[in-house]
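ATP-dependent RNA helicase (Vanderwaltozyma polyspora), 670 aa
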Amino acid sequence: MTTTMMLRNAGFMKSRLPGFAELVKSGLSVVTVSRNYQISSNLKREFQYNRNGATGRDKGYYSRDNSHSFGRHGGRFARKAPVEDKDPDSLDAKNFTKVVVMPKLENEVEVTLDQLKDENIIDTMLHLSISRMGFPNLTAVQQKTIKPILENEDRDVIARAKTGTGKTFAFLIPLFEHLIRTRRESPDMVKAVVLAPTRDLALQIEQEVHKIHSNNYALKKFGCMSVVGGTKFGQSLFQLKKTRPNIIIATPGRFIATVEAVGAEYFKHVDFKVLDEADRLLEIGFKDDLEYISTSLNGLNDVGKDHIRTLLFSATLDEKVQTLADDVMNKSECLFLDTVDKNEPESHEKIEQSLVVSQNFAESTYAVIDHLLKQTKNVPNYKAILFTPTIKATKFLSNLLKKSLHRYPVYEFHGKIDQAKRTRIVGSFKGAPAGLLVCTDVGARGMDFPNVTEVLQLGVPSELSNYVHRIGRTARGGKEGASVIFLSDSELGLIENLEKEKNISIENKSNYEPSSEIMENVEKLIESEEELADVLISVISFYRGNSSVLGLDENKAFMSIASSYGTFLKDPTQKIPIYNKGMLEKIGLVNNTISSEMFDLKGDASDHMERLAMSRSRSPNRKFSRNKSFNPSNKYGNYKSNNYRNFNNRDSRGEEDYQYKRSNRFRERF
Ligand SMILES: Nc1ncnc2c1ncn2[C@@H]1O[C@H](COP(=O)(O)OP(=O)(O)OP(=O)(O)O)[C@@H](O)[C@H]1O
């Protein structure tokens, strides 16, 4: 049975619509949403801004001269939007209806590769290539998506499937089939654009395309090229000209630069755009870019502004996807193909999840080291990934572990390593029979490292969904795996949030107390107190930005991390030294009296804190003013927090391209 809801004026109704998750729960299978049809909402904004007179301060929108400016960097990053200007008055006239179709999938019959060929869904050339890969059968997401994507050309598609279940081929197979079917139409043009949030993931998807090529050379004529930051732009344009690929795999920033430079030459015939890790691409830092890309490609398209079909794939999709669907999808109908049951957690069921609880961050570090000492000794070919909150923590931990684990291979991987080296590290760890990859959340999504036995997490991830993605680096392609998260008492809010929001409960729980032996050993390995202070400050900054999202008590989390300084140095009276007020400002704790408890304040930092404490004790509103800097729902308190959240997001998630350049100020320090 299907139910249909017709809603006029989506702008007004958006706030009243239940999210996707709730829609699934409520059993609705068709939802109809109406909104302005002629243009995507960001294009509409452009015209509104043109009418009202936009200024460079207006984040992410077009200005009068049809250029696109980003944030405060308006001038420097001003972009020429490759879309034609339009008469604003003609735009509000029509409404459109977007239908989200969620098929009920009862009595499912297995779909095989042979069937797809026999029913002429896929060509023999493609069938040959995929069968040569030797997969025993198609995965659930491949069975559910390939045919529907190819059968109905007037629909966009959203697909959700658990980590490591073959989503990459689920979109690459239809893309290749489309290229085969349209081989005579504009053979030298880009027809499909795949966007990914990290360079490493984009390069990995390019490798998957090359697997399709190398299993049947006849498919090599459908060329593919990656367009990612950290590589030479001029060289990439030259390659584009020379190879004339049909598929581009890109990160958003470099893709925008490419479209701006040569959009009219290569991107007028795009039929598909794919957003891998779609929910991530929707978040702050990417969403404006995605809207811009969508509008640009639509504006350039020779067939029409609503011609390009959009495919969204991820293991974690919730109501945010609705916003994405609104802003970057063109078709009036959108198929939502879900391989995860509505009552099921998004995490993969073949991962045995554990939690180890200790007193503070330092003790969690000892627990990780202890655990790794045991596993590398007892488990043959033990291959693991350890996630840490920040780049500095990653460096620190990989150094400690290289020394503790002796000859066991330890790889350090984060966004501050140059791209060529990053690619080498990914290649080495993929091919390694055993080893440990220590990384930030830059490695959390999409990366397919074969045979990872275990995923370890020291502290919390940068967002709730990344818990699912991080642990999903194991148990891939039908295999089993394990994960252990090491948290202090003050971080247990994350576990509650995972239960509440993601329906994930961790069965195996244990407490950890370090032995004096491991404490002594680690203390000997710490080379510099300054570096230790730096690492802990970076982690405090990370928590400053992420605690409210992750359900943590910010103050408790800060104290726990700060107390780790004394624990690591085996002298609990020692506090992290802070030499000036500027440093407190950078961490976002300048108006927070708890700073005196956490840090050993020196110079003007100490004077400032004394003055602050005195003014608060005199102020009749002191309770309010103290809360102001802490309350996550408080507009003013949150202002700084957001700044730091952005910085931390970049720091830990390793976002790409010019977004990095924009944050250089912070990156260099942390
Ligand atoms: N039909 C299949 N049968 C078995 N293994 C497969 C099949 N299709 C793909 N694989 C393999 O499964 C692994 C995971 O695939 P892929 O990286 O596409 O997963 P994913 O669903 O995109 O994961 P993530 O959510 O982490 O991005 C890869 O090594 C891939 O080669």
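Residues 1-97, 621-670 have pLDDT under 50 and may be disordered. Residues 351-568 form a domain with the Rossmann fold fold (CATH 3.40.50.300). ok done for today
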